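Worked Example 4.2. Read the sequence first, then its structure tokens.
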Amino acid sequence: MRIKDRLNSNRFLKNFATLFSATLLAQFINVAASPFLTRIYSPEEFGYFSFYLSVCSLLIVYTTGRYEFAINTVKLEKESQALFKVVVILSTFFTILILLAEQIFYDQFIGMFGLEKVSSLLIYIPVTLLAMGIMQGLNYYLNKHKEFGVLSKGKVLRSSVTSGSSIIFGLIGLHSVGLILANVLGYVISVVYQTIVKRLSFLFDFRNYQFDSLKQTAKIHRHYPLYNSTSAFFDNMAAQAPVFILMRFFSEAIVGFYSLTIRVAVLPISLISTSVAQVFLSEIAELYSDGKPFGHVLRKVLILLSVIGIVPVLLLVTAGPWGFALVFGEEWRKAGELSQILAFGYYAKFVVSPLSVVFFVKQKVKLLSIIQGIRAVSTVSVLWISSTYLDIEAVILAYSIHEILFYIVYLFFIFRVSRAAGYIRS
């Protein structure tokens, strides 16, 4: 009862526990499905799927203009709704733009990325971007209203739909496209569920969109697409660079091995990390808006993440190859060997990355853009140079060391920005 009473009396812990428990369940579903998926889909098919996810991760930052991050920083409900509508409009426009670009440059895209075997995946990229963009805007709008219960159920629903349909689509012979289609379906079902449960369909009624007013709102918060989109692009480029460069210098199978470590090691801990970031953002945005310091919350979250991340790291280091071979099949032992090398880089990202919302609350997105730009260049350089001369294990080691060093520097800037003077004016 003491633990329950403490959770009820501490809003941060209560909200975190809500998202954390849902994230654990969602990831349990993903991990439980993975042994079936690795026996249905080949490493090459996972490699193509990982490439598709990487492309979507790069493009999503321009799909929404990153306006969803501004939803939590404004006080008025009218402005929050306006920002969400801006996200919907931009996502729709960008989806149409990508569709047109794919039609015009179809042959060039296929040849550039060697997608002759899976050319149909291009169709799913713009559809995925639209679903992702709307979901991100909706998640931040619900976060603004502290609807963590709905957010949690949306996570579990998305995971269930994606994992279940991936297995079904694979069994009926859809292969690489099965993984992609299941991913799209997971996003769509989650958005529909959250919209219906909270009765938010009015936010999607274009007849009520006052475009002149929305244009003004977008102009006021233009620093998000101008600076934060670029920052996020660099951040995602650094995160997705291994997929593109490994595809270029090695093979689809190697990308598949790497992508499995992401699926069963990185995604579970990163989604926990994302849950912390959402609650952390809500908490410090409110404190900062009221002119109160939030350093104590920053330190508390840093300690919490440091402790939580120890267990998965130890598991990867001590039982990576054996565990992957046992659970996913002998064919996937190589993925476990790579996960051993990547473990400490994953840990650094897990601990530090959620704290970066400090840059958004303090409106230091230009500084963040510079930091992420430097990181993107250094990451691509390390991977490209090492891939030219070294084998895959040495390349992954160089990448992991680079990740650790970057996040140490990143943490320094997070604390420095958090101590800077100034308050939000809205």
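Now turn to a second chain, presented in exactly the same format:
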Amino acid sequence: MARLAGVSVFDPAGDQIGRIRDVVVGLRGPLRPAVHGMVVEVQPRRRVFLPITRVRGIEAGAVVFTGRLNMRRFEKRSTETLVIGEMLDRAVTVDGERMTVFDLAMEETRPSAWEITKVAAYRGRRRRDPRIVAWEEVSGFDELQRDQGAAGLIAAFESMRAADMASALHELPGKRRIEVARALDDDRLADVLEELPPRDQIGILGTLEPARAADVLEEMDPDDAADLLNDLPADQAAHLLALMEPQEAAPVRRLLTYPQDTAGGMMTSEPVILPPSATVAEALAHIRQKDLSPSVAAQVYVTRPPNETPTGAYLGVSHFQRLLRDPPSTLLGSVLDPSIDPIRPGFTLPEVAQYLASYNLVAAPVVDELGRLVGAVTVDDVLDHMLPADWREGARP
């Protein structure tokens, strides 16, 4: 059942309508739990319920259902349990020995009726001696556990994009959310935090040791780290900034000097920047980096040294489409777009949006009064600020 996380769901016509995020069951004491259905995430980030009676096929990488899907937001009942979110990593007892659950299996016991029949568990911390046993041989699922762990759930979510994992994390009970967040690596947690609502960001960061919280902030994009620090109490934000490495804190401090709803407050301080003597081949190598978002990788900014913000004199921008059309040995200084003027850090949100729309751009260079490039505002930065404050939590009816 852990492998169902992220599996595509198709309607009777063969159209993909969403992805599975969890499986809903009802615990019945010593009896096998009955599978009620699946939690399916449809766009935009809405979780709905797919009854198990509507499921007509479960295959590798696909679940097919029949009938119509009720688009009302899923609300878990007090008598229900989520398999992936709440049952994985549970400490249980098998033949008198304490073990940790890492998967469960369900079977169709009669037409359109499914039950959990088997449990996969291991002892120790490194999945030693894994065992698959019948549900009846396991006890402990009904016990209250103070520290459940998160290895199994993280493994189930491993292939998800950061935004999808953030959505899954947001839907977990508060205690479980904290357990999973604290078990993530710093870089993965940073990616997920960037996609969470501010309330979740603050809650998770507040449970971390200050030194680790500072490490996670260092892994975040400077503009996202600055937005998060802006939401914290001033003394807490100052303390975390002081714990960060000076070179990592410097761009964040600069961003904090600008109002949040201006180009300076929205921009990323780490766009792709190269000197005019660099070649098209070098530029393409830079924008191929997999950790760059598509909007950041869509253009290369050309400046005089130094080539880190704030840079030397800003010379212009070269779009990736132009880079693909020119020979690899061409110098960047000769492939600049002369029609794009930079914007100032003080541009307001409506002004930045109008600028991007007028020139059909996905990003805009931000240049200060000294002619230095200080960052770039991307279209996703603008959308982030134009959407309602709670948009990451999903629109409710």
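Notes for the reader: The chain has three domains: 2-139, 158-256, 273-384. The first helix runs from residue 83 to 87.
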